[in-house]
Amino acid sequence: MSALGATAAAAAPAGALFRPLSAEDGEQQPAEIESLCMNCFRNGVTRLLLTRIPFFKEIIVSSFSCPSCSWSNTEIQAAGRIQEQGVRYTLAVTSRQDMNREVVKTDCASARIPELDFEVPAFSQKGVLTTIEGIIDRAVAGLEQDQPARRATDPEVARKIDEFIGKLRQLKEVSSPFTFILDDPSGNSFVENPRAPHRDEALQVTRYRRSPQQCALLGLQGEEVDATPPDAAEDLRDEVLQFNTNCPECNAPASTNMKLVQIPHFKEVIIMATNCDSCGHRTNEVKSGGAIEAQGTRITLRITDPSDMTRDILKSETCSVEIPELEFELGMGALGGKFTTLEGLLKDIRDLVEKNPFTLGDSSTASRTGKLQEFIGKLQDIIEGKAQAHFIMDDPAGNSYLQNVYAPEEDPELSVQRYERTFEQNEELGLNDMRTEGYEAEPASGR
C-alpha cells in the first residue's frame, strides 16, 4: 500500500478522508510509515494524520521520531484548497501574553519583524502550528545552526549574527513593543485573537488580491481573457447559468447555478448556489452585479421588534458588520457575500463564533469559554427579540443593502449614511491605481 493509501485508510475508517479533530474520536488514528532519519541515517517512524480543524481548514499533521538518536520533528501542511484571496496579519506585540498567541503558518507564508528588518521568507520553512515565541525560537535555532563553522571561517560575519541573535532573544522579553507581520498569499495562515468574538485592537487582518508573481509561486495560472465580445442578444436576467466546479468540502464534481437578480429599490446582484450530490453540501454566495459606488455606505438599524429579523439583507464581500452593544465586529471578507434575512445573518455569525477552534477541546480555557457562552447568549436574545441593539453595516464599496419595510417612505429605525472613502479603503478596493479616463490614448502614442 502506498503512503497516501495507508494514510487514507487510517484517517478515514468511516469513509471520510478528513475527519474533524476531536479528542473523543477513538477511530481517528494516524498512519505510521517507516522512513529514514536525516540526523543519524537510520530508520525512524513518521506518523501522518489527515484531519479537519473546526472553523479553519483541512490539514495534514506529520510527526517524525527516531528511536536511535531521539531526534524528532513535527510539521503541518494545508490540505484544503487555496483561498480566493491572500491574507496579511499585522500584530502589535506589547506584552508577554502576545507572545503566547497561537499561529498557523503555512510553508508559503512569510513572517516579518520590521523593527529588526528581519524576515522569514516564504517556502524557507515547513508549515507549523506554534506561537509567536515559537517562530522566534525557530529563527534563532536556524541562525545558530552553522555558527561554529562561521566562527572558524569568517569570525566577523559570525559576530554580527551573534549580535542579531541577541536582539531576537530580547524580543521574547517584550522590553519594547514591536510589530509581527504574517503574510500568506494562499490565505491559509492564521493568528489567534484571544478576545474573540470581540475585536482585537492590536491585530489587523487584511485580505488582498494576489499578484501574478504570487500566483506563479503557488502554481496558479492566470485567467485567460476572452477576446470574443459577448452576445448582445443574450439576456442573463431570464436565464439560470450552470457551470461545473468541485465541492469545497469533499472535492467531488458538482454544479454551480448562477442567476442575475434585481433587488427592488437597490441594484442588480449575482446569486451563485452550489449543490454537491456526493456529500450533500450546499452553499450560496452573492456578488455585486454593478460597479463600485462613488461613496461608501453606512447602514444603521435599531432593532426594536422581533419582526426586524425578517428584513432582507444583502451583505457584500467588502462589508463589515458591527453590534456596539456586544462590542462585536465582523471584518471585511468574513462570511463572504450573502443575500438572506437579518435573522439568517445573525445565526451565521453565531455559528461562526461557536466553531472557533481556540475555544474547543484542549485549546480552550474556562474564562475564554465562559466569555464565549455569555456572548452567544446575548446574541441569541437579540435573535429572539428579547433585547434591543444596533446593527451597523459599513460597506466602502456601497454594494450592501438592508430592507426598508416602509419603502418608499422613510424608515424611522433605519438610517443610511453616505461618506467619502479614505485612502486606505480605496487602496483595499484597488481604486487608487485605477484609471478610467485618458488611458485610450496611450497605445496609440506608443505605435
What is the molecular shape? globular
Cα-based radius of gyration, to the nearest Å: 25 Å
How would you characterize the largest beta sheet? Answer: 5 strands, mixed
Distance between the termini: 62 Å
Number of strands: 25
| Number of contiguous helices | 10
- What percent of residues are in strands? 25-35%
SSE-based structural type: alpha+beta
Poorly predicted residue ranges = 1-15, 223-230
Write down the oligomeric state.
single chain
Mean pLDDT: 81
Q: Could you estimate the helical fraction of the residues in percent?
A: 10-25%
Could you provide a short overview of the structure?
This protein has 447 residues and is α+β, with helices and mostly antiparallel strands.
Core attributes:
447 residues; alpha+beta; five-stranded mixed sheet; five-stranded antiparallel sheet; 25 strands; 22% helix; disordered N terminus
